[in-house]
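Usage

Read records sequentially. Each one opens with the input sequence:
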Amino acid sequence: MYRVLIIDDEEPLREAIRILGDWKGLGVGEVLEATDGQMGLELIAKHQVDLVMVDMKMPTMSGAELLQALERDYPDLPAIVISGYNDFEYTRQAIRSKVVDYLLKPINRHDLNAALRKAVDLLEARRVRESEFINRNITLNMSLPKLKEKMYLSIIDRSFRSQTNEAFLPLIGADDPENRFAAVVLRMLNMEKVRSARFHSDVDLLHFAVANMLNEIAGEYFQAFSFASPRQDRELIVILTMKGAYQEDIVYRCLHQMNKALAALQDLLGIVAVAGIGTPCTGIMEIASSYETAKAAISGIDLLKLKGYSVTNTVVKPSKEISPITGRIQLFRAALEAGNSAGAKSILSEELRKWSSEGFFTIGEADQMIARFIIMMNDMSLELGVPRDKLPIMEEHPIRFMRLSEDFVNYEQFSKLLDDALHFYLEQIRMTQTTFEIGDIKAYIDNRYYEDIKISMFADKYFLSREYIMKLFKQQFGCGIHEYVQRIRMDKAKELLDDPSLKIQDISERLGYKDKNYFSKAFRNYFSVSPTEYRAASKEG
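and closes with the structure output:
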């Protein structure tokens, strides 16, 4: 268990950190507090502290002075800096001290726990002396570029507050009114193939290599800063900065340099990529809109005409509406229920031919079709009894869950991806149907009719949905499970009532009814006579 020390003179901030931190999940057993740097040093000397969180502006001893002391006396003690103070000088010491992360006020739960997780990863890496790969990434995570990346991402998701974080604006050139900006989004269409063949499946190393190439090539005309997108690991975001120029000139140079960069990526690394260039802007906060137009530009690239890499700054929308695959859901369901794999594949092939015949099919439409297809197939597979843990439900990368590649550089590869995904679902359905016999449930009821039988028992045992079990049982035996249990019990009741030595109370208990009156009521509802009346009529007969 780790011990964390929060050093801050503001009690509300210390309390917020205590409340928002996922201490148990991070393996933190104790959280100490100090109101200033001097008190913090005393606690560090007294206790074995594993991590310190330091506010940069404090009385008695400032955060910068404390970091200097820690660097001198406790060089291996990781620190997280908390700052919102409007003076970049307070942050320079943090950069020199190679702190683990920077938290900008006001603190939110996600950023806090992400920083704490990074620090805990560092501590664990030191303890177990993991691979050089981890150590390299830790070093990178403690660098100034990481702070710039977090700033750009907060601008893109519109959570950045320029007044609160004014001290950091010079880091990204936002303090110079002459600067112009543009966001570029690059998408690697064959990332998994290249990652496996050239980078030993190390996606971080691939991102590092691509970002360096983009920065170097774009840097002939711009200041370029590239980093991996946290939302999609096959995408990189490039922020281009240049001194005052006309928008047309910026767009022309962006197109020229990104074409040059993508050609180099294909020649040197075998990466087939597309790039969207966002609208140039004069204000740093407008990068969010530039990023959105860059994403839209990629989505509008025609997959049918794509041959190799492509760069565009034009947002194109399809002139015709492509019919969603979910429009054929009834045909798919009928084929799957009948076990007609060839029929299901034929329906998909027909849809793929229809889409291509429209003459215009974008990357964005391909992404939407894949997502819709997976949702549709997940739902139908559940209905057909496939266990949830065998399906990519709520998975961040459902295609990878199927052990398939997400790569597609043209329409043919996109079509194969959907076909392979369909094959995955067909296999799951086939294996479910061959390992489960509905007759097993009937046999159980025939032998254990006197027990408290619930459908959830079978759902849990066979890892199937209640709906699927009930539907299959009725198809096979012509009635529902509860109805069948009632029928077996009533038939057995008539048999037992024919034995005059048995009391109705005994019969009730043998059939699983703990209450004689409830049994009598059930018997009357089923046969329209009471058990006593049935027995009397049986004797007369």
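Summary fields computed downstream for this record:
- The chain has a mean pLDDT of 86.
- The beta strands are 2-7, 28-34, 51-55, 79-83, 101-104, 179-188, 223-228, 235-243, 273-277, 310-312.
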